[in-house]
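The records we work with from here on pair a chain with its fold. Here is one such record, which you should read through line by line:
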Amino acid sequence: MTTLQGEYEPSPSEWVREQVAEYEASGGTKGNTLLDTGMPIIVVASRGAKSGKVRKNPVMRVEHDGEYALVASKGGAPDNPEWFHNLVAHPDEVAIQDGPEPFAVRVRRVEGDERARWWERAVAAYPPYAEYQQNTTRQIPVFVATRA
């Protein structure tokens, strides 16, 4: 169940497909951490920038006062993850599942001081982000998701 309507197209990545399926089937009680790190994730559903289909990705859980940072790190790769383009193209067609039920959010990319504050929170929640940033020449984009 999702607040985002349309045809769902599972990720081409097997581990992403499996984690999203396990998370959704269990209401967020299973598949809710990054592999064996014990660090919590959320599932972000977005509208595909090219396909228009619903896409779902596990993203590290970085929550502060009811808002969430969505960090487009792709492990420090030189390019942004595919879902980055979905959020840019359709910032009002996004849902987050952090627990049993998904909820609609609006996302906006943050820059400057606001990005710096959210980046600090993101690194506190998931320390490898700092290393990811060192491994790439691009500034890793950060979006903030607010309940719609």
The chain is about 30% helix and 25% strand. Strands lie at 41-47, 54-60, 63-64, 67-71, 94-97, 102-109, 142-147. The mean pLDDT is 95.
